[in-house]
Write a structure and sequence with these properties.
Blueprint lengths: L3 E5 L5 H12 L3 E6 L6 H9 L3 E6 L5 H12 L3 E7 L15 H29 L2 E6 L12 H21 L4 E8 L5 H14 L3 H9 L10 H12 L10 E4 L7
Helix pairs in contact: 1-2, 1-8, 3-4, 4-5, 6-7
């Protein structure tokens, strides 16, 4: 029986690393990617410590040739079953009229074009296999406003549209396509987002943090492992009838 492979882009930290570890624990051989593969050592170590196997690959999801090379290397591991398009950046925090076109394009190229290129690279192999799971990591910001974050919001909403349409296209081939929409995930990235929100809105960091936690019925931030668990579920046979969904992992901040 061929080895079942999962691919996780942007796996060198945070949510991506947690997803890779969860999929490794679920029995997948995991191809993990980042622009600089040297930054993936801790991810590979964590996957292997959990009993899984991992391969670090260089990939810039903004670059078509880089994604194609990564896909070819990942497919040498075995039969690719699950593709998690997680790579993304926060983009600028500023009023729309102050955002440079280059910054807008960089955010959209990473957060939306990167999902398109990643899914496109693996679609033929999954179609040939007659099964598979594609998961795009969107955000609750793809569903609700976040002050000063128009490029990020537009890109993440675009991921949801991409996923819903691709679910219709690939469903007849036995492939499920879903999005996961994390809320504010505890860690260095949300700390930076909170600092930028505070500066942009002229409020304290504590007030900016409260804007996230106060909107949660649970009164807390999300943990990366909770997002990873959602991805592992969507990759599993237990989710065989779930496609075209945008699953919230937001501690209740978003319920639609």
């Amino acid at each position: 029986m061929s080895v079942r492979v999962a691919v996780v882009t942007g796996a060198n930290r945070g949510i991506g690393r947690a997803i890779a570890v969860a999929l490794g624990a679920a029995g997948f051989a995991v191809a993990v990617t980042a622009r600089d593969p040297a930054t993936l050592k801790e991810t590979v170590d964590d996957v292997e410590a959990g009993g899984g196997t991992a391969l670090a690959l260089a990939c810039d999801v903004r670059d078509e040739a880089s994604v194609a090379d990564m896909a070819a290397a990942a497919m040498e591991l075995g039969t690719v079953h699950t593709v998690v398009a997680n790579a993304g950046i926060a983009g600028p925090t500023a009023p729309l009229h102050e955002i440079a076109l280059a910054d807008w394009r960089d955010c959209v190229a990473t957060d939306l074009d990167g999902v398109f290129l990643t899914f496109r690279a693996f679609a033929p192999a999954l179609i040939a296999a007659g099964e598979g799971s594609m998961i795009g990591v969107s955000s609750m910001t793809g569903k609700r406003p976040l002050h000063g974050r128009t490029p990020y919001a537009a890109a993440k909403m675009g991921v949801i549209g991409l996923v819903r349409t691709l679910a219709v296209e690939l469903g007849p081939h036995g492939i499920r396509v879903n999005a996961v929409c994390p809320g504010a995930v505890a860690g260095p990235r949300i700390d930076d987002v909170i600092a930028r929100q505070a500066a942009a809105r002229g409020i304290s960091a504590a007030e900016a943090l409260a804007a996230f936690t106060g909107a949660s019925p649970l009164g807390r931030l999300v943990v990366a492992g909770e997002v990873a668990a959602a991805c592992a579920y969507l990759a599993s046979d237990a989710a065989a009838s779930i496609t075209g969904e945008d699953m919230n992992v937001t501690a209740g901040v978003v319920m639609y």
